[in-house]
Amino acid sequence: MDHHARARGAELVVREDGDEVCLDLWTGRERDATDAGVKLVEEAVTSARSSHVRHVLATLEVSAPASGDVLTALRAQVGRDVEHMETRRAGASVLVDLGLRE
């Protein structure tokens, strides 16, 4: 099931598949869009954890200004909502693999 969240120039698509959630983020280049994208991703990760999801895969555009800020925000969640985080490059995207805490 797909859910869409939008805020100030950012859009997050959340796909739920059993105990896994996939996040796809698109943002504009404005600072407001970057901040909104970070907040949408943080909220989606917190929501996934509270729903007992254990795995989140996020896709970020390498060229999007929000990507660096989102990665920083997710790293800050390690030890809280996030148990471990791995990143890898896939073409024009960065794939972020998150293991959530129980």
Largest sheet: 6 strands, mixed
Tertiary shape: globular
What spatial order of strands do you see in the largest sheet? 1-2-3-4-6-5
Proportion of residues in extended strands = over 45%
In N-to-C order, the SSE pattern is: EEEHEHEE
Give the C-alpha Rg: 12 Å
Structural class: alpha+beta
Extended strand count: 6
- Total of helices: 2
**Helix share, percent:** 25-40%
Distance between the termini: 23 Å
Report mean pLDDT, rounded to a whole number: 92
Low-confidence stretches: none
Give the gist of this structure.
With 102 residues, this protein is of the alpha+beta class. Helix content is 30%, strand content 45%.
Description:
- The protein has two helices and six strands; from the N terminus they run E-E-E-H-E-H-E-E.
- It has a six-stranded mixed beta sheet, with helices on one face.
- Strand 3 (20-27), helix 1 (31-50) and strand 4 form a beta-alpha-beta unit.
- It has 102 residues and is α+β, with helices and mostly antiparallel strands.
- The longest helix is centred in the middle third of the chain and has 20 residues, at 31-50.
- Helices cover 30% and strands 45% of the residues.
